[in-house]
Amino acid sequence: MRTLALRGGARVAVVAAEWRDAFGVVTRGRVQLELRDGEPGPVLGRDAGFWLRGTGVRALRNPGRRTARVRVVTLGGQDRHPPVNTPRTPATGQQRNDMNSVNDTDVVVGPAAGRAGHTHRFRGLAGTGLIATLAAMAATTLAAALAQAVGVDFAIPNGGETIPLPGFAVVTGFFSAVGIVIAVALLRWSARPAERFVWTAVSLTAISLVPPLLSGANTAATISLLGLHLVPATVMIPTLARSLRARTD
User: Compositional bias of type Polar residues: which residue ranges (predicted)?
Assistant: First the structure.
């Protein structure tokens, strides 16, 4: 009996002969079976058991970000071979049973593949965030231009200058970039990045509505500024949240 640990994004080939008498149980995370034609097969969740003998499954992969673990039990006595051709770490411990002897070994699969998977997810999230940032900047600038067209004056109180349209784009881009950084950090360190990102982003958006209310601007300008805070939020938050969910499924 041994534990097979697959880091996020890792893939390991299955050698049929070595799984002939083996039974696997997913004890953590999710494991996807790769079929003989290379097509993705079913995804097995926690406590799911499976045989691979005669199925034609050619690989196991971890579709998620967190390490997945599979308890592998070989019937008929002590395991003689690892279930797959992969490097193994030193045994984490051995247990002696009165009925028979088994080795309890952690086999960590694909560290390089795991790192590559992390890098791919981070780059994908950042790319999605960049596109959303450009869209948010364009939408905010357009909304500000429309507000000015109907007579809203974005002049700074107490005789200040009028806020130029490029200023809205710059501020939107800066805070959108902050949102991307938060999303990437949560993807790296949080077990529930999408949920935590939504909670954090909504909270920060609510806080950002306070300065316009205290700015002393006229009613039309205050309402417009509140709306201009909400426009990029409605673009960035759902987009990054969906991207986070897609990369943690």
Answer: 86-103
Q: What are the tokens at 95?
A: 């247990």
Whole-prediction pTM: 0.57
The 10 Å CB-count burial string (b at 16+, else e) for 129-152 is: beebbeebbebbbebbeebeeeeb
pLDDT tens-digit series, residues 89-147? 333 333 333 333 333 334 444 444 445 555 677 888 999 999 999 999 999 999 999 99
Locate 15 and state its tokens: 């050698």
Distance (Å, whole) CA 219 – CA 202 = 24
Residues 31, 14 share a domain: yes
Determine the length of the chain.
Answer: 249
**CA–CA dist 114, 121 (Å, integer):** 11
Tokens of 148: 């000015």
> 3-class DSSP state for residue 119?
helix
Q: Which of 86, 109, 132 is the last residue of a domain?
A: 109
Answer whether 162's CB lies under 8 Å from 154's CB.
yes
DSSP 8-state secondary structure symbol assigned to residue 83: S
Last residue of a domain, one of 109, 134, 159: 109
